[in-house]
Specification:
This protein is α/β, with parallel strands linked by helices and 486 residues long. The chain contains 17 helices and 13 strands. It has two domains: 287 residues, Rossmann fold (3-Layer(aba) Sandwich), CATH 3.40.50; 123 residues. The chain has an eleven-stranded mixed sheet with strand order 2-1-13-12-9-3-8-7-4-6-5, sandwiched between helices. A two-stranded antiparallel ribbon has the order 10-11. A hairpin with a 6-residue loop joins β12 and β13. The protein is elongated and about 110 Å long. It starts with 59 loop residues before the first strand and ends in an 11-residue tail after the last helix.
């Protein structure tokens, strides 16, 4: 019987290296880098591509913090192209300095590439001026010695009304009247820290009608003209004032209203900024930014009035553009409206929540998306009136999506009542709000842990955590600390 010699077994390395003494197995293997592309770009790699769970429709925002996949998101695309949102709106919450304006700028830039015009209704810092200029938009400066915005100026709306007929013309004229009435009432509210009475609003409405009859479409009136109408006491105004035929009684009824309107004309707290002819008209065929950064932070009432006036003027212009498009007189244009520093307006006086709510009622089917931005939900719930707090909270509840940056732990119970957040999502937001540490090696403060991190929430769906990194082309237009650069 032949004898055979058994060959020695050859050792083979494992996935982590050679096993055994001296083998050098590693305990951790870095994952292979991953990229993502369209079927045209990576067709030669098929079938080794794999799908991801995040939507690929909309503006590319950043990378999913869990999977590393690209996250595309904006309220207009998610509403019109995917049906993920009930309405094209979003509410952005987060502590200062974590990038709230940055993520909105990324959306505005991407939507501009899609043909959706960004409209920035009040830029206080400024955060958006450089971006709007870079993409060929219009920048309108407002403030003491910088520019004026006449709150009785309907802008493009009055020219649009002359081109319309029938019901379309009537609806637009009614919208012009309503927005001017709301704006004058809002300025009175800011001055008094309380809304005008029902009788005073009725007097204002009648006085605006008389004002239109006096001036017609050829001359735009200013607040001084409105005050003069009230002083002249025409019959149409006296009848709604219920003066019972007594001119002395009429003077007593209108005295407080006249005093408030007169305070808007001179060099008072609002500086006459809204009582003089509009310095520069808004154009609706390009992106627009109202730059109010020249108003000092100490002028709280003036800032609130400027924001509210920009919103009123801008929303009115958008309504006029839609009316012309519906009549086939202008192409249909889509807009992305940004309302930053919402808390400044809401806390300027009781009843301003109703004013903001009335201004922002836009038809969702007209392709208009808007973003409201504030620091925390406490900004909305700190209002002194319970009714105002409930309505302000409704801004978040009605938003199509909510984007959260880092938030303090005390915010979680209140936020969870409005947005469905799981415990891991709450911990994530709290961790992102951790203050930055001191970087001894660099000799400066390190970046906050939550800088550029956001959680996208749509209804009860699980949130999408992502990180936003700016490209080299975006860094310059996103530099909000230019005065500190050497």
């Amino acid at each position: 019987m032949a004898r055979t010699t058994k060959e020695p077994r050859q050792a083979r390395p494992t996935a982590r290296g050679w096993s055994g003494p001296g083998g050098g197995m590693v305990g951790y293997v870095d994952p292979a880098p991953e990229w993502r592309g369209t079927s045209v770009q990576v067709c030669g790699l098929w079938p080794f591509g794999a799908g991801a769970g995040t939507p690929m429709v909309g503006v590319p925002l950043g990378r999913d913090l869990d999977s590393g996949a690209t996250v595309c998101c904006d309220p207009v695309s998610w509403f019109t192209r995917t049906g993920l949102l009930a309405n094209p709106s979003m509410f952005v919450l987060g502590r200062p300095g974590l990038g709230k304006s940055t993520v909105v700028r990324r959306m505005a830039l991407g939507l501009a590439g899609y043909g959706v015009h960004p409209l920035i209704f009040g830029d206080l810092k400024p955060d958006y001026v450089d971006l709007i200029r870079t993409i060929g938009g219009q920048v309108i400066s407002l403030g003491r010695g910088r520019g004026n915005l006449n709150v009785l100026d309907p802008g493009e709306s009055i020219q649009a009304a002359t081109r319309l007929t029938g019901e379309a013309r009537g609806r637009l004229l009614a919208d012009i009247h309503g927005r001017r009435l709301h704006m004058v009432s809002a300025l009175v509210t800011i001055l008094r820290s309380a809304p005008p009475t029902d009788r005073e609003e009725t007097i204002l409405s009648a006085a605006l009608n008389v004002l239109d009859d006096r001036h017609g479409p050829d001359r735009v009136p200013v607040l001084g003209d409105l005050v003069q109408v009230i002083k002249d006491a025409p019959e149409a105004v006296r009848s709604v004032a219920l003066d019972r035929g007594d001119i002395t009684r009429y003077r007593d009824i209108t005295e407080n209203l006249e005093a408030s309107l007169t305070a808007l004309l001179g060099d008072g707290r609002l500086g006459g900024t809204f009582a003089r002819p509009t310095t520069e008209a808004m154009q609706l065929d390009r992106p627009v930014c109202f730059d109010i950064s020249g108003i000092d932070d100490s002028e709280v009432l003036l800032q609130a009035a400027a924001l509210l006036s920009c919103w009123s003027y801008g929303f009115g212009a958008v309504s006029a553009a839609h009316a012309l498009a519906d009549a086939g007189l202008e192409p249909q244009r889509n807009y992305f409206l940004v309302m930053d520093e919402l808390w400044r307006v809401l806390q300027a006086g009781r009843g301003l929540v109703d004013r903001v709510n009335a201004l922002t009622r836009l038809d969702r089917q007209r392709g208009v998306g808007h973003a409201m931005i504030t620091h925390t939900l406490d900004d909305l719930l700190a209002l002194p009136n319970e009714e105002d707090r409930t309505k302000a909270k409704g801004f978040v509840e009605r938003a199509g999506m909510v984007i959260c940056a880092g938030l303090p732990p005390a915010e979680m119970p209140q936020l969870s009542q409005v947005v469905e957040l799981t415990e891991p999502e709450q911990r994530l937001l709290v961790d992102w709000s951790t203050p930055p540490a001191w970087d001894a090696a660099q000799g400066r403060r390190a970046d906050p842990p939550g800088l550029g991190n956001f959680l996208i929430k749509v209804g009860s769906r699980p949130g999408i955590p992502l990180h936003v990194d700016l490209t080299a082309a975006e860094l310059e237009v996103n530099n909000t600390n230019k005065r500190w650069n050497k």
